[in-house]
Amino acid sequence: MFLKLPLQTRSSLEERNASLNESSVRLREDLRSAEERKATLERELRQLQTEHADVSKRCSIAEASLEVANRVSWGSTPRLVST
Q1: How far is CA 29 from the centre of its chain?
Q2: Span 8-56, pLDDT tens digits
Q3: Which of 1, 9, 20, 50 could make an SS bond with 5 (beta carbons 3.0 to 4.6 A apart)?
Q4: How far apart are alpha carbons 20 and 26 in whole angstroms?
Q5: How far apart are CA 19 and CA 27, in angstroms?
Q6: So where are the chain's domains?
Q7: Which residues contact 26 (CB under 8 A, 6 or more apart)?
């Protein structure tokens, strides 16, 4: 059931509809781009978190090795005893 609208009103509505359709297409493309960017950033974040955990673990191991080396070094050095 279509209402009979004046030609100018109908033309104006068709233009507005076309404009809204263009906006809708553009916004969908923007959303798709944003979702792809988000996925990329999440992948990069997981990679950086993994790298951080690896570096932190290596640092802890290096600190423990240094501590052991220092203990061995101090333990093998002759100590002066006061008399």
Answers
A1: 21
A2: 888 999 999 999 999 999 999 999 999 999 999 999 999 999 999 999 9
A3: 9
A4: 10
A5: 12
A6: 16-57
A7: none
